[in-house]
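Schema walk-through. Below, the input block comes first and the output block second. Nothing else is stored per chain. Lengths vary across the set, and this one has 314 residues.
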Amino acid sequence: MNINLINNNIKIIILFFFLSLNQNIIAFENRILIKINDEIVTTIDLLNEIRYLSALNKNLNNLDQKSLIELSKNSIINEKIKKIELEKSFIKQNIEKEYIDKIIENFYLNLGLNSPKDFENYLSNSNIDISMIVKKIEIELLWNRFIFEKYKEKISINKNELEQQIKNIDKKETKLFDLSEIIFSVSQEENLEEKLKKINDDIKKVGFENAASIYSNSNSSRIGGKIGWIKQSSLNKSILNKIINLDISEISEPIIVPGGFLILKMNDIKSELNEIDLDQELKKLIRIKTDEQLNQFSLLYFNKIKKDYLINEL
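--- output ---
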């Protein structure tokens, strides 16, 4: 690998990134930067990824140029690998519009916007076409479907245990936590203490949201690791014990989860009166626990297959 060439490419990308903010720019030489098996990533691809990630998470504007480029590069490599795997699978390739619309709604509400039209206008101001967003959503939804089909027989839900968990809820009121997450793994070449120190240093330097975008393996990394409001009753004991005494803005110790480690940030806390419908609460809990397990299977499987891919930076 030619280090000078990589450094030159990075300089070109940075220059293009800032030039592209000028609406009068007409053309730019589009170069191949990365090959993933037979798939390529060009200068334009990487610029579009920078725009996409920065549009969904405004905190990324606080990152230095090198970190933003590295984050965008890793994001597009991961997406390309998922795309290749999906093309090899026999998974049904069409996604119902209602599911895409729901994710788009989550995106624009997280940005403080009120409608799909507002979102399209917002994207247009960042030179992003909504069709690119839809395509990315489709890849993620198809990947989730692929993981479900692959691991559905391994999902283990103890309904009796969940029912008991619901029955143990305080009948007068319950706590809700507004949480953000970083889910990370440690490779054989890495040391947990060193990686944790690096993450914590970046949390202090650029904030939890940007650190989540850089390090987290979860889909929530696209929006700074934000999970949103979670009922106390929806959290398992090991996670609840780690966060129950956290103050607002405090960050948990790392929590061991299948395939890696979880760090949670307490954004806010509130209480609400309980009106418990056992059947409804059970359905919600089953969905949450199922999603947790599928996310863990997804991470384990992706980390496994990524080792088999030939990734060359040109």
